[in-house]
Amino acid sequence: MAAGRGAGSGLASFARFYRWPGARYVPVLDAPYAQSVLATRTTDTSPEVRVFRALTVALAREMDTGTSR
């Protein structure tokens, strides 16, 4: 991109939160369903990580449309 050319992909929210000068965001309307994951160390037992994991699982179950399987 430093050379003035390049391409990449990202979430729709990138256009809202990352306003890089010269970057243009073009929606891809026929893109296949994408999947996101949460990765944490299995040995991390901090309360913040446990709560974040629980919230992530609850939200994923609530939003599951059956298309991820």
What this model shows, in words?
The protein has 69 residues and is mostly helical. The chain has helices spanning 13-17, 47-63. The longest helix is centred in the last third of the chain and has 17 residues, at 47-63. The protein is extended and about 45 Å long. The N and C termini lie far apart (36 Å). The mean pLDDT is 79.
Which helices and strands appear, and what pairs or packs with what?
Elements: H1 13-17, H2 47-63
Descriptors for this entry?
69 residues; extended
Structural class: mainly alpha
Mean pLDDT: 79
In this structure, how is the largest beta sheet organized?
none
Rg result? 17 Å
Q: What coarse outline follows from CA principal-axis ratios?
A: extended
SSE topology string: HH
What can be said about this structure in brief?
The chain is mainly alpha-helical and 69 residues long. The protein has helices spanning 13-17, 47-63.
